[in-house]
Amino acid sequence: MSSIDEISQSELSMLKQYSKIVDATNIVSKSDLKGTITYVNNKFIEISGYSREELIGKPHSIVRDPATPSSTFKELWQTIKSKNVWNGVVTNKRKDGSKYTVSASIFPILDAMGEIIEYISIRHDITQVLELSNKIEEMNAYNMQQEYLAKDKLEAGIVNDMDESECSVLHLASDILSGDFYSIYKMKDGSIFLYIVDGQGHGVSPALTVFAISSMLNQFVYSMKSIEELIEKLYPIAKTFLGEIEQLSYTMLMICPKKKSLIYTSGGMYPFLIKKGEEILKIKANNMPFMNFSPIPVCTTIELDVWDSIMLYSDGILEHENEDLKEYMPEAIMKNPSMIKDAMKKISEHKFEDDVTMIYLKNVE
231 CB contacts (<8 Å, ≥6 apart)? Predict the structure, then answer.
């Protein structure tokens, strides 16, 4: 036997193996120039539900789904008649009327003169993949809908009695269940009470704790006579919501009716800012965060003869690594209040690792 024969036999053996692999893993058919089926493999018979005798000699339209636009097949034929390979996704119809979806490639086979002599179609059944993908899309859409509903319900608990001329608020939650909550109240006697609470950590537990604390504050606030009374009523209940290692950072302010003084209690938060003329006071926390073992918070009074604005903020605005936002930090805004709207817009365009809350309160009197 010559070496040429040996090579031919070797190549033939390999081609048979390749053909066997393709035949075992793909839906294969051949058709003549008019689209009449001349060959089908076992995979084609299995998925279509037709016998080999029912398929051979029939047009490929025997498995065509009537719902498929005719433009799809027009483009298919234009492509393969131009001696190009057509690739696409097609839904076919079984003998029993059920449908299946395939990813198909149709190849024109050319003779030695470069003329088309037949077409070979190789398909992959993607029905289950497509169904799974659709289910995932449906689940994602449902989850998104539920997240928006949850967000709406949570934000319904936020109170802001101030108008835009008096107060600007930026509140960006990194998750739908926010760890930051705030509210701003105008009391009957003319005083102003505002707070930010920040659950330390991410996820459901700190978010629900913050929501519970905020809900209690909303119930207690209008009936309280002083911030000390509010703390005495709130704190014992708040401790019951805190897990063994959970903590709650907070800042609460009560500005007197004539705005000449304020009482505050703060724990675990960055200093809040008070602007008086060109001076900016940084008021540090006077307590530790709420924890299930911490003592009842103390309140501190600050006398204010004249003040221009007050800024409360959570840690999310400071603990980021975006250089573009450095000029919009709380102290910079306090120094240049004309940039407040632009700052709010720029900050809201970014994604943060943590929740962001900024409350800018202006003294309009």
Answer: 252, 265, 296, 297, 299
Please, what is the end-to-end C-alpha distance for the chain in angstroms? 109
User: Residue 327, SS3?
Assistant: helix
Sequence-distant (6+) residues with CB within 8 A of 13 are none
Q: pLDDT digit string (tens) for 94-150? A: 999 999 999 999 999 999 899 999 999 999 888 887 777 778 787 777 666 655 655
Res 283: pLDDT: 95
HSE-CB of 110 using CA atoms within 13 angstroms: 10
Q: What pLDDT score does 205 carry?
A: 61
- Which residues share a beta bridge with 121? 29, 106
Local structure of residue 160 (DSSP, 8 states): B
**Which DSSP letter does residue 269 get?**
S
Do 3-125 and 157-362 come out as alike in CATH topology?
A: no
- Show the tokens assigned to 106: 């149709």
d(CA 269, CA 284): 8
> CATH homologous superfamily for 3-125?
PAS domain (3.30.450.20)
Tokens coding 58: 């029939």
Residue with tokens 């024969």: 5
| Sign (positive or negative) of CA dihedral 240, 243, 244, 249 | negative
Q: What is the DSSP letter of 289?
A: P
Instruction: Compare 7 and 243 and report the one with higher pLDDT.
Output: 243
Taking a C-beta distance cutoff of 8 angstroms, is the pair 247, 200 a contact?
yes
Please check the confidence at residue 280 and state whether its pLDDT lies above 60: yes
The structural domains of the chain, with segments of one domain joined by +, span 3-125, 157-362
- Considering only the top CATH level, what class is 157-362? alpha beta
Q: Which residue has the tokens 């903020």?
A: 313
How many whole angstroms separate alpha carbon 191 and alpha carbon 254?
7
Q: What does the alpha-carbon distance between residue 124 and residue 104 come to, in Å, rounded to a whole number?
A: 7
Scored b (16 or more CB within 10 A) or e, 296-310 reads ebebeeeebeebebb
Please name every residue paired with 101 in a beta bridge, in sequence order, or none if there are none.
91
CB within 8 A of 351, min separation 6: which ones? 174
What are the start-end ranges of the H helices in the chain? 3-25, 42-48, 52-55, 70-81, 127-155, 204-220, 227-241, 330-335, 340-348
